Amino acid sequence: MKKMAIGSSLLLFLAACIWGVAFVAQSVGMDYMGPFTFNGTRFLIGGTVLLPLVCIRIKRKKDTPQEIPAALTLKGGVCCGLAICFASLSQQIGIMYTTVGKAGFITTLYIIIVPVFGVFLHRKVSGKVWKAALVAAAGMYLLCMNESFSIGKGDAFVCLCAVIFSIHILVIDHFSPKTDGVALSCIQFFTAGLICILGAFVLEEPSWEQIYSGIVPLLYAGVMSCGVAYTLQIIGQKNLDPTVASLILSLESAVSVLAGWVILGQALSVKELFGCALVFAAVIWVQMPEKKGRLSGE
């Protein structure tokens, strides 16, 4: 069992590395095409990559008596697709004006935003979450605020991305227990891809030449980030506690900084690095299990 847990941890770490480097692919992709064209193409590639896995899972589930309603899966996939579409567009636009390292850490804030949003859904939020949110806010100030005490355009878009990704997670939380996770993801990718492609023809001038020129970052973002990493997450989470799994996956923020520095030469200042450290500490803190207090009389 211990060997299985170690293997699952390695799979999730690999997924985090893929997602961290994906920020570089997204940044490089903007050299060849607009954000709508890039996101539309990569989501359609990601959905296509997942199709064989969906077919295999459907074939296996024919042998089981429990049936998953197709209409609910379709509805959930479309809702998730709308959320991930606008979240990814905000992120993609933001990366055009900020570094991949900062984008990675700001995006990870969804781990703190989600439980805060839970207040509106009448879910109890512990004091630790509020304290972690304050630490993250301090880190965000150091990470995003410039000398003129204003937040950069790119950082603002990535902050919006973190908020919408939080909504995306809550939508998944609602639909995933009632549907097939892989099919849900496949539908969301196709939904987001079609919306982005439509936006590309309205707001941009997409061409096959652009797609061909940026095929490497597109394939990485589509095949590796959407298809491979998501599959690794599904397999890896089977034998791990959800808290441990999310802790490992949050390492994508640290990987994004290293990838931006090594591949693109995007270095962060001491103030920004300290801000990253505070955000990362808050993300880890909010995922650590609460210590159970002793009951009176024990």
Give your account of this protein's structure.
The protein is mainly alpha-helical and 298 residues long. It has 13 helices and no strands. The longest helix is centred in the N-terminal third of the chain and has 28 residues. The two termini are 32 Å apart.
The share of residues in helices is over 70%
Please report the distance between the alpha carbons of the first and last residues: 32 Å
- Regions with little confidence, pLDDT below 50 for 5+ residues: 294-298
Mean pLDDT: 82
Radius of gyration: 20 Å
Portion in beta strands: under 5%
Secondary-structure element series: HHHHHHHHHHHHH
How many runs of DSSP E, i.e. beta strands? 0
Rough outline: globular
Oligomer: single chain
User: In terms of structural class, how would the helical and strand content be classed?
Assistant: mainly alpha
Main β-sheet description: none
Tally of individual helices: 13
Give a short overview:
This protein has helices at residues 2-29, 35-61, 70-95, 100-107, 110-117, 127-144, 153-175, 181-203, 208-213, 215-236, 242-249, 252-264, 270-287. The protein is an all-alpha fold and 298 residues long. The longest helix is centred in the first third of the chain and has 28 residues, at 2-29.
